[in-house]
Model the fold of this input.
Amino acid sequence: MTQTLAGYNFAYLDEQTKRMIRRAILKAVAIPGYQVPFGSREMPLPYGWGTGGIQVTASIIGRADVLKVIDQGADDTTNAISIRRFFAKTAGVATTEHTADATIIQTRHRVPETPLRAGQIMVYQVPIPEPLRWLEPRETETRTMHALTEYGAMHVRFYEDIAHYGRIATTYDYPVIVNDRYLMRPSPIPKFDNPKLDMSPALQLFGAGREKRIYAVPPFTKVKSLDFQDHPFAIESWDEACHLCGSTTSFLDEVLTDDQGGRMFVCSDTDYCRTRTS
Amino acid sequence: MYVAVKGGEKAIDAAHAMLARERRGDPAVAELDLAQIAQQLGRAVDRVMIEGSIYDPELAALAIKQAMGDLVEAIFLLRAYRTTLPRLAASLPVETDHGLVRRRISAVFKDVPGGQVLGSTFDYTHRLLDFALAAGTPLPADAATAEPIGAAPRVADMLGRDGLIEPPPPGEAIPADLTRQPIDFPADRELRLQNLARGDEGWLLALGYSTQRGYARNHPFAGEIRIVDVAVEIVPEELGFAVEIGEITVSECDMVNQFAGSATAAPAFTRGYGLVFGQAERKAMAMALVDRALRARELGEPITAPAQDEEFVLSHSDNVEAQGFVQHLKLPHHVDFQSELDLLRRLRAEHDQRKAAAE
Done:
Protein backbone atom coordinates (compact mmCIF):
# COMPACT_ATOMS: atom_id res chain seq x y z
CA MET A 1 0.00 0.00 0.00
CA THR A 2 1.29 3.40 -0.88
CA GLN A 3 2.09 5.67 2.04
CA THR A 4 -0.77 8.11 2.65
CA LEU A 5 -0.84 11.42 4.47
CA ALA A 6 0.04 11.00 8.15
CA GLY A 7 -2.53 12.25 10.63
CA TYR A 8 -5.45 12.08 8.21
CA ASN A 9 -7.98 9.38 7.46
CA PHE A 10 -8.05 7.47 4.15
CA ALA A 11 -9.15 9.95 1.47
CA TYR A 12 -8.98 12.83 3.98
CA LEU A 13 -12.58 12.83 5.26
CA ASP A 14 -13.43 11.03 8.49
CA GLU A 15 -15.68 8.00 8.17
CA GLN A 16 -18.73 9.67 9.73
CA THR A 17 -18.58 12.46 7.19
CA LYS A 18 -18.24 9.94 4.38
CA ARG A 19 -21.31 8.10 5.64
CA MET A 20 -23.26 11.36 5.73
CA ILE A 21 -22.22 12.10 2.14
CA ARG A 22 -23.05 8.57 0.99
CA ARG A 23 -26.53 8.93 2.47
CA ALA A 24 -26.96 12.13 0.47
CA ILE A 25 -25.72 10.33 -2.67
CA LEU A 26 -28.19 7.47 -2.14
CA LYS A 27 -31.01 9.94 -1.82
CA ALA A 28 -29.81 11.76 -4.93
CA VAL A 29 -29.76 8.50 -6.90
CA ALA A 30 -33.25 7.67 -5.67
CA ILE A 31 -34.60 11.03 -6.89
CA PRO A 32 -32.74 11.73 -10.15
CA GLY A 33 -31.97 15.40 -10.69
CA TYR A 34 -33.12 16.49 -7.22
CA GLN A 35 -30.62 18.61 -5.27
CA VAL A 36 -29.97 17.01 -1.88
CA PRO A 37 -28.60 19.37 0.81
CA PHE A 38 -25.60 17.95 2.64
CA GLY A 39 -23.24 19.07 5.39
CA SER A 40 -20.43 20.11 3.09
CA ARG A 41 -17.06 20.36 4.82
CA GLU A 42 -14.20 22.74 4.34
CA MET A 43 -11.63 20.99 2.22
CA PRO A 44 -7.95 21.84 1.91
CA LEU A 45 -8.69 23.07 -1.61
CA PRO A 46 -10.67 26.26 -2.10
CA TYR A 47 -14.41 26.41 -2.61
CA GLY A 48 -15.12 26.83 -6.30
CA TRP A 49 -12.14 24.67 -7.21
CA GLY A 50 -13.91 21.33 -6.97
CA THR A 51 -14.65 20.78 -3.27
CA GLY A 52 -18.05 19.24 -4.02
CA GLY A 53 -16.58 16.77 -6.48
CA ILE A 54 -13.68 16.05 -4.13
CA GLN A 55 -16.04 15.29 -1.25
CA VAL A 56 -18.12 12.98 -3.44
CA THR A 57 -15.00 11.21 -4.72
CA ALA A 58 -13.54 10.97 -1.20
CA SER A 59 -16.66 9.31 0.14
CA ILE A 60 -17.00 6.71 -2.64
CA ILE A 61 -13.39 5.89 -3.41
CA GLY A 62 -11.90 2.59 -2.26
CA ARG A 63 -8.38 1.24 -2.33
CA ALA A 64 -9.03 -0.74 -5.53
CA ASP A 65 -10.36 2.26 -7.46
CA VAL A 66 -8.52 3.86 -10.36
CA LEU A 67 -9.01 7.60 -10.52
CA LYS A 68 -8.89 9.94 -13.49
CA VAL A 69 -9.22 13.69 -13.03
CA ILE A 70 -9.80 16.10 -15.90
CA ASP A 71 -10.32 19.82 -16.20
CA GLN A 72 -11.44 21.24 -19.56
CA GLY A 73 -11.15 17.67 -20.84
CA ALA A 74 -7.42 17.56 -20.12
CA ASP A 75 -5.52 15.52 -17.55
CA ASP A 76 -2.60 17.91 -17.44
CA THR A 77 -4.34 21.16 -16.47
CA THR A 78 -3.01 22.44 -13.16
CA ASN A 79 -6.19 22.01 -11.11
CA ALA A 80 -6.71 18.46 -12.41
CA ILE A 81 -3.13 17.68 -11.41
CA SER A 82 -3.68 19.22 -8.00
CA ILE A 83 -6.81 17.14 -7.32
CA ARG A 84 -5.25 13.94 -8.67
CA ARG A 85 -2.26 14.49 -6.40
CA PHE A 86 -4.56 15.16 -3.46
CA PHE A 87 -6.07 11.68 -3.79
CA ALA A 88 -2.75 10.05 -4.57
CA LYS A 89 -1.48 11.60 -1.32
CA THR A 90 -4.49 11.06 0.95
CA ALA A 91 -5.81 7.75 -0.40
CA GLY A 92 -2.79 6.26 -2.15
CA VAL A 93 -5.01 5.04 -4.99
CA ALA A 94 -3.91 4.32 -8.53
CA THR A 95 -4.50 7.14 -11.00
CA THR A 96 -4.76 7.02 -14.76
CA GLU A 97 -5.19 9.29 -17.74
CA HIS A 98 -7.03 6.64 -19.77
CA THR A 99 -10.78 7.00 -19.68
CA ALA A 100 -11.27 3.28 -20.29
CA ASP A 101 -9.07 2.29 -17.33
CA ALA A 102 -10.71 4.57 -14.76
CA THR A 103 -13.37 3.47 -12.29
CA ILE A 104 -13.98 7.03 -11.07
CA ILE A 105 -13.59 10.09 -13.30
CA GLN A 106 -13.76 13.46 -11.62
CA THR A 107 -14.34 16.25 -14.08
CA ARG A 108 -14.68 19.95 -14.47
CA HIS A 109 -16.40 21.28 -17.61
CA ARG A 110 -16.20 18.19 -19.89
CA VAL A 111 -17.46 14.66 -20.41
CA PRO A 112 -14.82 12.40 -22.03
CA GLU A 113 -15.24 11.64 -25.72
CA THR A 114 -14.64 7.92 -25.13
CA PRO A 115 -18.05 6.39 -24.34
CA LEU A 116 -18.46 5.47 -20.68
CA ARG A 117 -19.30 1.94 -19.62
CA ALA A 118 -21.36 0.38 -16.87
CA GLY A 119 -19.53 0.39 -13.54
CA GLN A 120 -17.78 3.68 -14.11
CA ILE A 121 -18.71 6.70 -12.00
CA MET A 122 -18.52 10.27 -13.28
CA VAL A 123 -18.10 12.91 -10.59
CA TYR A 124 -18.89 16.43 -11.77
CA GLN A 125 -17.64 19.54 -10.00
CA VAL A 126 -20.54 21.96 -9.75
CA PRO A 127 -20.21 25.69 -9.03
CA ILE A 128 -23.92 26.62 -8.99
CA PRO A 129 -26.30 23.66 -8.74
CA GLU A 130 -29.57 25.56 -9.10
CA PRO A 131 -30.71 25.76 -12.75
CA LEU A 132 -33.17 28.53 -11.92
CA ARG A 133 -30.63 30.68 -10.07
CA TRP A 134 -30.16 33.34 -12.76
CA LEU A 135 -33.92 33.66 -12.99
CA GLU A 136 -34.55 33.73 -9.25
CA PRO A 137 -31.74 34.36 -6.75
CA ARG A 138 -33.67 33.10 -3.71
CA GLU A 139 -33.36 29.50 -2.59
CA THR A 140 -36.73 29.71 -0.81
CA GLU A 141 -38.37 30.55 -4.17
CA THR A 142 -36.53 28.09 -6.40
CA ARG A 143 -37.24 25.25 -3.97
CA THR A 144 -40.96 25.91 -4.37
CA MET A 145 -40.60 26.17 -8.15
CA HIS A 146 -39.01 22.70 -8.24
CA ALA A 147 -41.67 21.27 -5.95
CA LEU A 148 -44.37 22.52 -8.33
CA THR A 149 -42.39 21.61 -11.48
CA GLU A 150 -42.78 25.29 -12.32
CA TYR A 151 -40.20 25.60 -15.08
CA GLY A 152 -42.05 27.98 -17.38
CA ALA A 153 -39.63 30.78 -16.52
CA MET A 154 -36.80 28.88 -18.19
CA HIS A 155 -38.84 28.41 -21.35
CA VAL A 156 -39.66 32.10 -21.32
CA ARG A 157 -35.97 32.92 -21.09
CA PHE A 158 -35.22 30.69 -24.06
CA TYR A 159 -38.09 32.27 -25.94
CA GLU A 160 -36.64 35.72 -25.23
CA ASP A 161 -33.28 34.51 -26.53
CA ILE A 162 -34.92 33.44 -29.76
CA ALA A 163 -36.74 36.76 -30.03
CA HIS A 164 -33.47 38.68 -29.51
CA TYR A 165 -30.90 36.53 -31.25
CA GLY A 166 -32.86 34.12 -33.42
CA ARG A 167 -31.60 31.18 -31.40
CA ILE A 168 -31.21 29.92 -27.83
CA ALA A 169 -28.14 31.72 -26.51
CA THR A 170 -27.08 29.25 -23.82
CA THR A 171 -23.95 27.38 -24.83
CA TYR A 172 -22.79 25.69 -21.61
CA ASP A 173 -24.46 24.58 -18.40
CA TYR A 174 -27.43 24.08 -20.68
CA PRO A 175 -30.42 22.99 -18.57
CA VAL A 176 -31.81 19.48 -18.85
CA ILE A 177 -34.89 17.66 -17.59
CA VAL A 178 -33.93 14.47 -15.79
CA ASN A 179 -36.24 11.47 -15.76
CA ASP A 180 -39.12 13.68 -17.01
CA ARG A 181 -39.23 15.45 -13.66
CA TYR A 182 -36.44 17.71 -12.34
CA LEU A 183 -34.79 20.57 -14.15
CA MET A 184 -31.06 20.14 -13.64
CA ARG A 185 -27.81 21.91 -14.38
CA PRO A 186 -25.39 19.51 -16.04
CA SER A 187 -22.57 21.65 -14.51
CA PRO A 188 -20.75 23.99 -16.91
CA ILE A 189 -20.07 21.37 -19.58
CA PRO A 190 -20.52 22.66 -23.13
CA LYS A 191 -23.94 21.75 -24.51
CA PHE A 192 -21.91 19.59 -26.91
CA ASP A 193 -21.64 17.11 -24.00
CA ASN A 194 -25.30 17.14 -22.97
CA PRO A 195 -26.30 14.19 -25.20
CA LYS A 196 -23.66 12.04 -23.44
CA LEU A 197 -25.63 12.29 -20.20
CA ASP A 198 -28.73 10.71 -21.72
CA MET A 199 -29.11 6.98 -20.98
CA SER A 200 -25.45 6.76 -19.98
CA PRO A 201 -24.45 3.36 -18.60
CA ALA A 202 -22.28 5.12 -16.00
CA LEU A 203 -23.47 6.53 -12.67
CA GLN A 204 -23.20 10.33 -12.75
CA LEU A 205 -22.79 12.22 -9.48
CA PHE A 206 -22.74 15.98 -9.11
CA GLY A 207 -21.16 17.69 -6.09
CA ALA A 208 -21.49 21.38 -5.19
CA GLY A 209 -19.36 21.99 -2.10
CA ARG A 210 -19.83 25.70 -1.53
CA GLU A 211 -23.55 25.49 -2.21
CA LYS A 212 -23.80 22.25 -0.19
CA ARG A 213 -25.82 20.20 -2.67
CA ILE A 214 -25.42 16.76 -4.25
CA TYR A 215 -27.47 15.43 -7.15
CA ALA A 216 -27.28 12.45 -9.45
CA VAL A 217 -28.24 10.88 -12.74
CA PRO A 218 -28.41 7.10 -12.24
CA PRO A 219 -27.33 4.81 -15.09
CA PHE A 220 -29.74 4.56 -18.01
CA THR A 221 -31.76 7.61 -17.05
CA LYS A 222 -33.43 9.89 -19.56
CA VAL A 223 -31.77 13.31 -19.76
CA LYS A 224 -33.43 15.73 -22.15
CA SER A 225 -31.98 19.11 -23.06
CA LEU A 226 -34.66 21.78 -22.89
CA ASP A 227 -35.80 23.07 -26.29
CA PHE A 228 -38.80 23.93 -28.48
CA GLN A 229 -40.29 21.83 -31.30
CA ASP A 230 -39.46 24.56 -33.83
CA HIS A 231 -36.08 25.28 -32.23
CA PRO A 232 -34.70 21.84 -31.46
CA PHE A 233 -31.61 21.41 -29.31
CA ALA A 234 -28.40 21.39 -31.37
CA ILE A 235 -24.74 21.09 -30.43
CA GLU A 236 -21.68 23.03 -31.50
CA SER A 237 -19.83 21.99 -34.64
CA TRP A 238 -16.55 23.00 -36.20
CA ASP A 239 -15.53 23.52 -39.80
CA GLU A 240 -12.03 22.35 -38.86
CA ALA A 241 -10.68 18.98 -37.73
CA CYS A 242 -8.30 18.43 -34.81
CA HIS A 243 -4.85 19.55 -35.88
CA LEU A 244 -3.22 16.66 -34.03
CA CYS A 245 -5.46 13.62 -34.51
CA GLY A 246 -7.78 14.77 -37.30
CA SER A 247 -10.96 14.09 -35.35
CA THR A 248 -14.03 15.79 -36.78
CA THR A 249 -16.38 14.67 -34.05
CA SER A 250 -14.71 15.76 -30.82
CA PHE A 251 -14.96 19.09 -28.98
CA LEU A 252 -12.15 21.32 -30.22
CA ASP A 253 -10.21 23.97 -28.31
CA GLU A 254 -9.11 26.97 -30.29
CA VAL A 255 -5.46 27.80 -29.76
CA LEU A 256 -4.05 31.15 -30.80
CA THR A 257 -0.66 30.61 -32.41
CA ASP A 258 0.43 34.18 -33.08
CA ASP A 259 -0.84 37.72 -32.84
CA GLN A 260 -1.71 37.87 -36.55
CA GLY A 261 -4.97 35.91 -36.30
CA GLY A 262 -3.25 32.54 -36.62
CA ARG A 263 -5.10 29.77 -34.82
CA MET A 264 -5.49 26.04 -34.78
CA PHE A 265 -7.98 23.62 -33.34
CA VAL A 266 -7.12 20.65 -31.14
CA CYS A 267 -9.15 18.13 -29.13
CA SER A 268 -10.05 19.31 -25.65
CA ASP A 269 -9.99 15.65 -24.51
CA THR A 270 -6.23 15.00 -24.34
CA ASP A 271 -6.57 11.27 -23.64
CA TYR A 272 -8.89 10.76 -26.64
CA CYS A 273 -6.56 12.73 -28.89
CA ARG A 274 -3.44 10.88 -27.73
CA THR A 275 -5.11 7.48 -28.14
CA ARG A 276 -5.95 8.35 -31.73
CA THR A 277 -2.46 9.58 -32.61
CA SER A 278 -0.46 6.81 -30.92
CA MET B 1 3.89 23.31 -34.24
CA TYR B 2 1.58 23.59 -31.33
CA VAL B 3 2.68 21.60 -28.30
CA ALA B 4 -0.01 20.99 -25.70
CA VAL B 5 0.88 22.80 -22.50
CA LYS B 6 2.70 20.14 -20.52
CA GLY B 7 4.72 20.19 -17.38
CA GLY B 8 1.93 21.36 -15.08
CA GLU B 9 3.24 19.11 -12.33
CA LYS B 10 6.71 20.61 -12.51
CA ALA B 11 5.27 24.10 -12.60
CA ILE B 12 3.23 23.45 -9.46
CA ASP B 13 6.26 22.13 -7.56
CA ALA B 14 8.41 25.04 -8.68
CA ALA B 15 5.72 27.55 -7.73
CA HIS B 16 5.42 26.07 -4.26
CA ALA B 17 9.19 26.16 -3.77
CA MET B 18 9.18 29.80 -4.82
CA LEU B 19 6.39 30.54 -2.36
CA ALA B 20 8.34 28.90 0.47
CA ARG B 21 11.38 30.97 -0.35
CA GLU B 22 9.40 34.20 -0.43
CA ARG B 23 7.73 33.30 2.81
CA ARG B 24 11.07 33.05 4.52
CA GLY B 25 12.30 36.30 3.02
CA ASP B 26 15.91 37.34 3.51
CA PRO B 27 17.65 34.55 5.49
CA ALA B 28 19.76 37.23 7.16
CA VAL B 29 16.63 38.40 8.99
CA ALA B 30 15.56 36.30 11.98
CA GLU B 31 12.70 33.89 11.27
CA LEU B 32 9.37 34.56 13.02
CA ASP B 33 8.42 32.02 15.63
CA LEU B 34 4.87 31.17 16.59
CA ALA B 35 5.17 32.65 20.07
CA GLN B 36 6.12 36.01 18.57
CA ILE B 37 3.04 35.95 16.35
CA ALA B 38 0.72 34.78 19.13
CA GLN B 39 2.09 37.33 21.58
CA GLN B 40 2.74 40.34 19.39
CA LEU B 41 0.15 40.00 16.63
CA GLY B 42 -2.67 39.06 18.98
CA ARG B 43 -5.44 40.85 17.08
CA ALA B 44 -4.54 39.03 13.88
CA VAL B 45 -4.54 35.76 15.81
CA ASP B 46 -7.96 36.61 17.27
CA ARG B 47 -9.46 37.32 13.86
CA VAL B 48 -8.11 34.09 12.43
CA MET B 49 -9.51 32.12 15.39
CA ILE B 50 -12.93 33.78 15.08
CA GLU B 51 -13.44 33.31 11.37
CA GLY B 52 -11.54 30.02 11.40
CA SER B 53 -14.03 28.92 14.10
CA ILE B 54 -11.51 27.33 16.40
CA TYR B 55 -9.98 28.65 19.60
CA ASP B 56 -6.30 27.82 19.38
CA PRO B 57 -3.84 30.73 19.36
CA GLU B 58 -0.90 28.52 18.50
CA LEU B 59 -2.53 26.98 15.42
CA ALA B 60 -3.79 30.41 14.38
CA ALA B 61 -0.23 31.75 14.68
CA LEU B 62 1.02 28.87 12.53
CA ALA B 63 -1.68 29.61 9.93
CA ILE B 64 -0.69 33.29 9.87
CA LYS B 65 2.95 32.39 9.43
CA GLN B 66 2.20 29.87 6.69
CA ALA B 67 -0.12 32.36 4.93
CA MET B 68 2.53 35.09 5.07
CA GLY B 69 0.15 37.31 7.03
CA ASP B 70 -2.73 36.93 4.54
CA LEU B 71 -5.47 36.56 7.15
CA VAL B 72 -8.20 35.25 4.83
CA GLU B 73 -5.78 32.58 3.64
CA ALA B 74 -4.87 31.82 7.28
CA ILE B 75 -8.58 31.48 8.13
CA PHE B 76 -8.95 29.04 5.25
CA LEU B 77 -6.00 26.96 6.50
CA LEU B 78 -7.49 26.77 9.97
CA ARG B 79 -10.96 25.85 8.71
CA ALA B 80 -9.60 23.05 6.55
CA TYR B 81 -7.82 21.68 9.60
CA ARG B 82 -10.78 22.17 11.92
CA THR B 83 -13.10 20.16 9.73
CA THR B 84 -11.00 17.02 10.25
CA LEU B 85 -11.24 17.17 14.06
CA PRO B 86 -13.60 14.84 15.91
CA ARG B 87 -16.30 16.45 17.97
CA LEU B 88 -16.02 15.06 21.45
CA ALA B 89 -18.60 17.06 23.38
CA ALA B 90 -20.79 20.13 23.36
CA SER B 91 -19.93 22.67 26.04
CA LEU B 92 -22.39 24.23 28.44
CA PRO B 93 -23.28 27.83 27.57
CA VAL B 94 -20.50 30.13 28.76
CA GLU B 95 -21.46 32.67 31.41
CA THR B 96 -20.05 36.02 30.40
CA ASP B 97 -21.10 37.74 33.63
CA HIS B 98 -18.56 35.64 35.54
CA GLY B 99 -14.85 35.52 35.00
CA LEU B 100 -11.98 37.90 34.55
CA VAL B 101 -13.28 41.10 33.01
CA ARG B 102 -10.60 42.62 30.79
CA ARG B 103 -12.73 45.41 29.53
CA ARG B 104 -16.31 46.41 30.08
CA ILE B 105 -17.99 49.59 28.99
CA SER B 106 -21.58 50.73 28.73
CA ALA B 107 -22.58 53.72 26.64
CA VAL B 108 -26.11 53.91 28.08
CA PHE B 109 -25.32 54.61 31.76
CA LYS B 110 -22.70 56.87 33.27
CA ASP B 111 -21.80 54.15 35.71
CA VAL B 112 -22.95 50.61 36.21
CA PRO B 113 -22.62 48.06 39.03
CA GLY B 114 -19.18 46.55 38.64
CA GLY B 115 -17.93 49.79 37.08
CA GLN B 116 -16.74 50.85 33.68
CA VAL B 117 -13.42 49.15 32.90
CA LEU B 118 -11.55 50.68 30.02
CA GLY B 119 -8.99 47.88 29.71
CA SER B 120 -6.50 47.71 26.86
CA THR B 121 -7.95 49.46 23.85
CA PHE B 122 -6.97 51.48 20.80
CA ASP B 123 -9.76 53.90 21.74
CA TYR B 124 -8.44 57.34 22.70
CA THR B 125 -4.98 56.58 21.35
CA HIS B 126 -3.98 59.20 18.85
CA ARG B 127 -3.28 57.38 15.64
CA LEU B 128 0.18 58.82 15.25
CA LEU B 129 2.80 56.50 13.87
CA ASP B 130 5.11 55.83 16.78
CA PHE B 131 8.56 55.97 15.29
CA ALA B 132 10.07 55.05 18.63
CA LEU B 133 8.30 51.69 18.37
CA ALA B 134 10.28 50.89 15.24
CA ALA B 135 13.36 50.56 17.38
CA GLY B 136 11.55 48.61 20.11
CA THR B 137 10.17 50.20 23.25
CA PRO B 138 10.62 49.27 26.90
CA LEU B 139 7.52 48.09 28.75
CA PRO B 140 5.65 50.78 30.69
CA ALA B 141 6.67 50.27 34.31
CA ASP B 142 3.25 50.62 35.89
CA ALA B 143 0.99 48.97 33.33
CA ALA B 144 -2.30 47.84 34.82
CA THR B 145 -3.35 44.24 34.48
CA ALA B 146 -6.82 42.76 34.32
CA GLU B 147 -8.25 41.92 37.71
CA PRO B 148 -11.46 40.25 38.78
CA ILE B 149 -13.97 43.01 39.46
CA GLY B 150 -16.48 40.87 41.30
CA ALA B 151 -20.12 40.85 40.30
CA ALA B 152 -20.68 42.68 37.06
CA PRO B 153 -24.26 41.98 36.03
CA ARG B 154 -25.13 42.57 32.41
CA VAL B 155 -26.60 45.96 31.65
CA ALA B 156 -29.27 44.34 29.49
CA ASP B 157 -30.32 42.17 32.44
CA MET B 158 -30.67 45.28 34.61
CA LEU B 159 -32.91 46.90 31.99
CA GLY B 160 -34.77 43.61 31.74
CA ARG B 161 -35.66 43.61 35.43
CA ASP B 162 -37.90 46.61 34.81
CA GLY B 163 -39.22 45.18 31.57
CA LEU B 164 -37.61 48.02 29.63
CA ILE B 165 -35.97 45.62 27.22
CA GLU B 166 -37.50 42.53 25.66
CA PRO B 167 -36.50 39.23 27.23
CA PRO B 168 -33.81 37.38 25.26
CA PRO B 169 -35.56 35.76 22.31
CA PRO B 170 -36.26 32.10 23.08
CA GLY B 171 -33.93 29.60 21.44
CA GLU B 172 -33.87 25.91 20.68
CA ALA B 173 -32.77 23.72 23.58
CA ILE B 174 -30.25 22.03 21.28
CA PRO B 175 -29.25 24.52 18.61
CA ALA B 176 -28.55 23.30 15.10
CA ASP B 177 -24.92 23.34 13.93
CA LEU B 178 -24.19 25.01 10.63
CA THR B 179 -20.86 23.25 10.29
CA ARG B 180 -22.73 19.92 10.13
CA GLN B 181 -25.86 20.84 8.24
CA PRO B 182 -26.35 23.38 5.47
CA ILE B 183 -28.28 26.44 6.50
CA ASP B 184 -31.91 26.38 5.49
CA PHE B 185 -34.06 29.48 4.99
CA PRO B 186 -35.76 30.95 6.89
CA ALA B 187 -32.99 30.34 9.44
CA ASP B 188 -33.30 30.20 13.24
CA ARG B 189 -31.57 32.94 15.18
CA GLU B 190 -29.05 30.42 16.57
CA LEU B 191 -27.98 29.56 13.05
CA ARG B 192 -27.88 33.19 12.04
CA LEU B 193 -25.64 34.03 14.99
CA GLN B 194 -23.35 31.08 14.20
CA ASN B 195 -23.09 32.31 10.64
CA LEU B 196 -22.38 35.90 11.68
CA ALA B 197 -19.82 34.87 14.32
CA ARG B 198 -17.66 33.15 11.68
CA GLY B 199 -18.60 35.62 8.95
CA ASP B 200 -16.12 37.98 7.33
CA GLU B 201 -15.44 40.98 9.51
CA GLY B 202 -15.40 43.37 6.56
CA TRP B 203 -18.76 42.08 5.36
CA LEU B 204 -20.36 42.56 8.78
CA LEU B 205 -18.73 45.92 9.31
CA ALA B 206 -20.08 47.24 6.02
CA LEU B 207 -23.57 45.83 6.58
CA GLY B 208 -23.68 47.10 10.17
CA TYR B 209 -22.53 50.49 8.94
CA SER B 210 -25.23 50.52 6.29
CA THR B 211 -27.90 50.20 9.01
CA GLN B 212 -26.46 53.29 10.68
CA ARG B 213 -26.72 55.21 7.42
CA GLY B 214 -30.42 54.61 6.99
CA TYR B 215 -30.62 51.22 5.29
CA ALA B 216 -32.77 49.61 8.01
CA ARG B 217 -31.91 52.07 10.71
CA ASN B 218 -32.58 50.58 14.14
CA HIS B 219 -31.37 53.23 16.59
CA PRO B 220 -28.65 51.30 18.35
CA PHE B 221 -27.05 52.08 21.69
CA ALA B 222 -24.02 50.15 22.88
CA GLY B 223 -25.70 48.76 25.98
CA GLU B 224 -22.56 46.94 26.92
CA ILE B 225 -19.33 45.74 25.43
CA ARG B 226 -17.33 43.34 27.50
CA ILE B 227 -14.18 41.38 26.98
CA VAL B 228 -13.96 38.61 29.51
CA ASP B 229 -12.12 35.37 30.20
CA VAL B 230 -14.71 32.67 30.69
CA ALA B 231 -14.48 29.05 31.72
CA VAL B 232 -15.62 26.44 29.21
CA GLU B 233 -17.33 23.49 30.84
CA ILE B 234 -18.58 20.18 29.57
CA VAL B 235 -20.62 17.48 31.25
CA PRO B 236 -19.02 14.13 30.38
CA GLU B 237 -21.72 11.48 30.15
CA GLU B 238 -19.90 9.12 32.48
CA LEU B 239 -19.52 11.79 35.21
CA GLY B 240 -22.83 13.58 35.08
CA PHE B 241 -21.43 16.86 36.40
CA ALA B 242 -19.66 19.79 34.78
CA VAL B 243 -15.89 19.91 34.50
CA GLU B 244 -13.91 22.87 33.29
CA ILE B 245 -11.83 22.07 30.22
CA GLY B 246 -10.26 25.46 29.69
CA GLU B 247 -10.66 29.17 29.54
CA ILE B 248 -11.21 31.41 26.54
CA THR B 249 -11.34 35.14 26.01
CA VAL B 250 -14.48 36.43 24.33
CA SER B 251 -15.79 39.82 23.23
CA GLU B 252 -19.48 40.34 23.70
CA CYS B 253 -21.73 43.18 22.61
CA ASP B 254 -25.30 43.83 23.73
CA MET B 255 -26.94 46.45 21.56
CA VAL B 256 -30.04 48.16 22.89
CA ASN B 257 -32.24 49.11 19.97
CA GLN B 258 -35.40 51.01 19.18
CA PHE B 259 -38.45 49.94 21.04
CA ALA B 260 -41.35 48.04 19.64
CA GLY B 261 -44.78 47.49 21.08
CA SER B 262 -48.09 46.14 19.99
CA ALA B 263 -51.70 46.04 21.10
CA THR B 264 -50.86 43.28 23.53
CA ALA B 265 -47.25 44.03 24.56
CA ALA B 266 -46.00 47.23 26.20
CA PRO B 267 -43.19 48.96 24.31
CA ALA B 268 -39.70 47.80 25.21
CA PHE B 269 -36.20 48.13 23.80
CA THR B 270 -35.11 45.36 21.49
CA ARG B 271 -31.79 43.54 21.35
CA GLY B 272 -28.98 42.84 18.96
CA TYR B 273 -26.21 40.51 20.03
CA GLY B 274 -22.63 39.82 19.08
CA LEU B 275 -20.14 37.33 20.52
CA VAL B 276 -16.73 36.43 19.16
CA PHE B 277 -13.46 34.88 20.33
CA GLY B 278 -10.61 37.00 21.61
CA GLN B 279 -10.46 40.74 21.66
CA ALA B 280 -12.46 41.87 18.65
CA GLU B 281 -15.10 44.34 19.73
CA ARG B 282 -15.40 45.96 16.29
CA LYS B 283 -16.56 42.61 14.93
CA ALA B 284 -18.83 41.97 17.96
CA MET B 285 -20.49 45.38 17.53
CA ALA B 286 -20.99 44.94 13.79
CA MET B 287 -22.41 41.49 14.44
CA ALA B 288 -24.89 42.91 16.96
CA LEU B 289 -26.08 45.52 14.46
CA VAL B 290 -26.58 42.92 11.75
CA ASP B 291 -28.24 40.48 14.16
CA ARG B 292 -30.77 43.17 15.05
CA ALA B 293 -31.37 43.99 11.39
CA LEU B 294 -31.96 40.31 10.62
CA ARG B 295 -34.66 40.14 13.30
CA ALA B 296 -36.92 42.25 11.08
CA ARG B 297 -39.12 39.31 10.11
CA GLU B 298 -39.55 38.19 13.74
CA LEU B 299 -40.35 41.74 14.90
CA GLY B 300 -42.76 42.43 12.06
CA GLU B 301 -40.69 45.21 10.48
CA PRO B 302 -40.75 45.90 6.75
CA ILE B 303 -37.78 44.29 4.98
CA THR B 304 -36.35 47.01 2.78
CA ALA B 305 -32.56 46.95 3.14
CA PRO B 306 -29.74 44.51 2.34
CA ALA B 307 -28.80 44.03 6.01
CA GLN B 308 -32.31 42.70 6.73
CA ASP B 309 -32.25 40.21 3.89
CA GLU B 310 -31.39 36.92 5.52
CA GLU B 311 -30.55 34.94 2.38
CA PHE B 312 -28.43 37.78 1.05
CA VAL B 313 -26.53 38.38 4.30
CA LEU B 314 -26.00 34.79 5.39
CA SER B 315 -25.23 33.34 1.96
CA HIS B 316 -22.39 35.75 1.33
CA SER B 317 -20.77 36.20 4.76
CA ASP B 318 -18.31 33.34 4.66
CA ASN B 319 -14.98 34.54 3.33
CA VAL B 320 -13.64 31.02 2.86
CA GLU B 321 -16.48 30.36 0.43
CA ALA B 322 -16.28 33.81 -1.13
CA GLN B 323 -12.53 33.90 -1.70
CA GLY B 324 -12.61 30.45 -3.26
CA PHE B 325 -15.40 31.19 -5.69
CA VAL B 326 -14.14 34.60 -6.70
CA GLN B 327 -10.67 33.21 -7.29
CA HIS B 328 -11.87 30.14 -9.16
CA LEU B 329 -12.16 32.49 -12.13
CA LYS B 330 -8.40 31.95 -12.41
CA LEU B 331 -9.00 28.35 -13.40
CA PRO B 332 -9.15 27.60 -17.12
CA HIS B 333 -12.57 28.14 -18.64
CA HIS B 334 -11.54 27.74 -22.26
CA VAL B 335 -14.09 25.01 -23.05
CA ASP B 336 -17.07 27.13 -22.03
CA PHE B 337 -15.42 30.14 -23.62
CA GLN B 338 -15.08 28.18 -26.87
CA SER B 339 -18.81 27.50 -26.84
CA GLU B 340 -19.49 31.19 -26.33
CA LEU B 341 -17.09 32.10 -29.15
CA ASP B 342 -18.88 29.66 -31.42
CA LEU B 343 -22.25 31.24 -30.65
CA LEU B 344 -20.96 34.79 -30.95
CA ARG B 345 -19.43 34.08 -34.36
CA ARG B 346 -22.69 32.59 -35.58
CA LEU B 347 -24.67 35.57 -34.33
CA ARG B 348 -22.25 38.00 -35.97
CA ALA B 349 -22.35 36.06 -39.26
CA GLU B 350 -26.15 36.14 -39.21
CA HIS B 351 -26.07 39.85 -38.43
CA ASP B 352 -23.76 40.51 -41.41
CA GLN B 353 -26.00 38.43 -43.69
CA ARG B 354 -29.07 40.38 -42.63
CA LYS B 355 -27.24 43.65 -43.15
CA ALA B 356 -26.02 42.58 -46.60
CA ALA B 357 -29.51 41.45 -47.59
CA ALA B 358 -30.99 44.77 -46.52
CA GLU B 359 -28.51 46.80 -48.56
The CA atoms of residues 126 and 187 of chain A lie 5 Å apart. The first strand of chain A starts at residue 36 and ends at 37.
